[in-house]
Fold this protein.
Amino acid sequence: MNEIFLSIIVGLSAFLLLGIWYSMYKSYEDSGIHLLNDWALSNSFEIISAKRKFFFIGPFLDKDSFLNLRFMTLTQVVYKIKYKDGGKNIRTGWLRCVSKFLGTVNSQVEFRE
């Protein structure tokens, strides 16, 4: 009887932790998309496509971020984007939404072509 009760408690705890993790991840992901859209609006750009990059983070992969790659991917969202500028020229670039400790709560956006 105790083993069944313990199994139920462990299963419910795992399910609860998974639910908390998913809601935090979804919030983190949504905030990155929100920052991407805000950046485009503030620069009068139209986003054609945006692909989230997890490991190959383009020009943001330098010596310092390589040493802290695991930490950096947890605190930044990097997108490879294709967009139309004000002159309707199609361009590509990389956009990083980052904060050192709080994920994307402190909105810092960095763009590189």
Observations:
- Residues 2-112 form one domain.
